[in-house]
UniProtKB/TrEMBL annotation:
<feature type="binding site">
    <location>
        <begin position="131"/>
        <end position="134"/>
    </location>
    <ligand>
        <name>GTP</name>
    </ligand>
</feature>
<dbReference type="InterPro" id="IPR004881">
    <property type="entry name" value="Ribosome_biogen_GTPase_RsgA"/>
</dbReference>
<keyword id="KW-0694">RNA-binding</keyword>
<protein>
    <recommendedName>
        <fullName>Small ribosomal subunit biogenesis GTPase RsgA</fullName>
        <ecNumber>3.6.1.-</ecNumber>
    </recommendedName>
</protein>
<comment type="function">
    <text>One of several proteins that assist in the late maturation steps of the functional core of the 30S ribosomal subunit. Helps release RbfA from mature subunits. May play a role in the assembly of ribosomal proteins into the subunit. Circularly permuted GTPase that catalyzes slow GTP hydrolysis, GTPase activity is stimulated by the 30S ribosomal subunit.</text>
</comment>
<keyword id="KW-0547">Nucleotide-binding</keyword>
<keyword id="KW-0479">Metal-binding</keyword>
<feature type="binding site">
    <location>
        <position position="273"/>
    </location>
    <ligand>
        <name>Zn(2+)</name>
    </ligand>
</feature>
<feature type="domain" description="EngC GTPase">
    <location>
        <begin position="92"/>
        <end position="235"/>
    </location>
</feature>
<keyword id="KW-0690">Ribosome biogenesis</keyword>
<comment type="subunit">
    <text>Monomer. Associates with 30S ribosomal subunit, binds 16S rRNA.</text>
</comment>
<keyword id="KW-0963">Cytoplasm</keyword>
<feature type="binding site">
    <location>
        <begin position="178"/>
        <end position="186"/>
    </location>
    <ligand>
        <name>GTP</name>
    </ligand>
</feature>
<keyword id="KW-0862">Zinc</keyword>
<feature type="binding site">
    <location>
        <position position="267"/>
    </location>
    <ligand>
        <name>Zn(2+)</name>
    </ligand>
</feature>
<comment type="similarity">
    <text>Belongs to the TRAFAC class YlqF/YawG GTPase family. RsgA subfamily.</text>
</comment>
<dbReference type="Pfam" id="PF03193">
    <property type="entry name" value="RsgA_GTPase"/>
</dbReference>
Length: 336
């Protein structure tokens, strides 16, 4: 058995690899540093050079250099902070995204919805793991309302509680995402059955984490056939790229919207609005509707930023073409 088999190698990647040059070797990126990365190959972990890749990518290498990145099946992308339209890829080729919600901090449903939107947007399937069930309690009903259609499991890494039932909902490559201190690395270790990922105590005042995990790292489980991707806690989660992700994360509102009287109902004050009727009837909270609108606006803004960049690039290209045309005409003029 090749080490790659433990890192999620399957027929899909073999087929993709076979389409490419025979002179390269197949590898999966397990950790990225500046300009260099660790990758698992047939003969174990190697250090290679190359950029533009992310943990979880399947790549080809030649003499420890990146040659090609195989097309990603999924990618967890967040809008990066600041004014650029760049996105940051948090993990590639992830099958299940485990969103951690800690029992020892105040439940922030808006944040849960953000993480769920990010997860759906990646193409992977989200699962919510309520962590530290031994040291507090989270209203699971509220979490279920904020994550319709998503499995919610209550876990404790301390007492091993709920780990098996969570595992039953996981397959393939698993990314652990959630705020710092929410117990991602500890849960990862529980799934691995050992202390592989570093963990760190939270601040006693507010149970916030200290950003213990600094790297995204891929580690295979010894027996369950999973590959875990531990990630650093995120300070902000900007969503962008697809309205579909928002529609998936807010499938309840999406379904209601389909029954509004007007097809283009903005659910503001239109007559016959099924969304507003649900709020009136107490079936949908103002908070959730508000967050839905916010994420849609954010998405639209990110898309327009992206369009603006595309326009600038087109313009640059055009200028380049007209410059070379002018040079050509000038040269033609001289020869005539
Ligand atoms: N009681 C209890 N404590 C837990 C549990 N899971 C995690 N913790 C504690 O919570 C703290 C933070 O856990 P980490 O696993 O480091 O959190 P993290 O999400 O990886 O944090 P970052 O790496 O900073 O993003 C540590 O002190 C853990 O021991 C649990 O199930 N029960
Ligand atoms: Mg961690
Ligand atoms: Zn409506």
């Amino acid at each position: 058995m090749s080490p790659l088999d433990h890192y999620g190698l399957d027929q899909h990647w073999l087929t993709e690899f076979e389409k490419l040059s025979r002179k390269t070797i197949l590898a999966r990126v397990v950790r990225v540093d500046r300009g260099e990365f660790d990758a698992i190959t047939d003969s174990g972990i190697v250090r290679a050079t190359g950029t533009g890749i992310c943990t979880g990518d399947w790549v080809t290498l030649d003499s420890f250099r990146l040659v090609a990145t195989l097309p990603r099946q999924t990618a967890i992308e967040r809008a990066s902070a600041g004014t650029t339209s760049d996105t940051q890829v948090l993990g590639a080729n992830v099958d299940t995204v485990v969103v951690t919600v800690a029992s020892d901090t105040a439940l922030d449903l808006g944040r849960v919805e953000r993480y769920i939107t990010l997860a759906w947007g990646s193409g992977a399937v989200p699962v919510v793991a309520i962590t530290k069930a031994d040291s507090g309690s989270v209203n699971e009903e509220l979490v279920l309302e904020a994550a319709p259609g998503v499995t919610v499991c209550s876990t404790s890494a301390l007492s091993d509680g709920g780990i098996d039932s969570l595992t039953a909902h996981l397959h393939g490559t698993i990314a652990l995402i959630g705020p710092s201190g929410s117990g991602k690395s500890t849960l990862g270790n529980a799934l691995l059955g050992g202390s592989v990922f570093a963990t760190g105590a939270t601040r006693s005042a507010d149970s916030k984490g200290r950003h213990t995990t600094a790297h995204r790292e891929l580690v295979p489980t010894p027996s369950s056939g999973l590959v875990l991707l531990d990630t650093p806690g995120l300070r902000s989660v900007g969503v962008q790229g697809s309205e579909d992700a928002v529609a998936s994360a807010f499938s309840d509102i999406d379904e209601l919207a389909a029954t509004c009287r007007f097809g283009d109902c903005a659910h503001e004050r239109e007559p016959g609005c099924a969304v507003l009727a649900a709020v009136d009837a107490g079936e949908l909270t103002e908070r959730r509707l508000g967050n839905y609108r916010k994420l849609l606006r954010e998405n639209a803004w990110a898309t327009s930023r992206h369009d603006a960049r595309a326009r600038r690039e087109k313009l640059r290209e055009y200028k380049q073409i007209s410059k070379s045309l002018r040079q050509k005409y000038a040269a033609d003029g001289r020869t005539r």
